[in-house]
Design brief:
123 residues; alpha+beta; four-stranded antiparallel β-sheet; 3 helices; elongated
Length: 123
């Protein structure tokens, strides 16, 4: 008797499923996240949650993390409050606009079913 094989999901960085871009307004960072392929959208919608993103950015101590879903575009917009050390005019860090924050989000690990491997961007 043959038993069906179940394959465990593969854990990959988010950049294999999506790309992003960061903007800023004062001390608020705005990060877009757009699926590379519509087949990956359900994984993004399910796993890239406000709780996970807040935990991923815990070192920046955001006071609020909001997710705005744009399902028809297979995208989401993230707004993280108080993560830019005061913003462009107040921050002493080298990335006062927070442009690197989209890259940090794209490092977040996600579990991907093996059936989606063909839709992922290369490492």
């Amino acid at each position: 008797m043959n038993t069906p094989q179940t394959t465990a999901p593969l854990t990959v960085p988010l950049y294999r499923l999506a790309h992003g871009r960061t903007g800023d307004k004062g001390n608020r960072s705005n990060i877009s996240l757009i699926a590379w392929n519509a087949a990956c959208w359900p994984v993004l919608a399910e796993q890239v949650t406000e709780q996970r993103v807040a935990a991923h950015f815990a070192a920046r101590r955001p006071t609020r993390v909001q997710r705005f879903v744009l399902e028809r575009l297979q995208a989401m917009n993230w707004v993280l409050d108080d993560v830019l050390d005061g913003g462009v005019n107040d921050a002493l860090n080298l990335d006062s606009h927070g442009k690197a924050l989209s890259y940090w989000l794209l490092q977040m690990p996600v579990a991907v079913p093996q059936s989606l491997l063909a839709h992922l961007a290369p490492e």
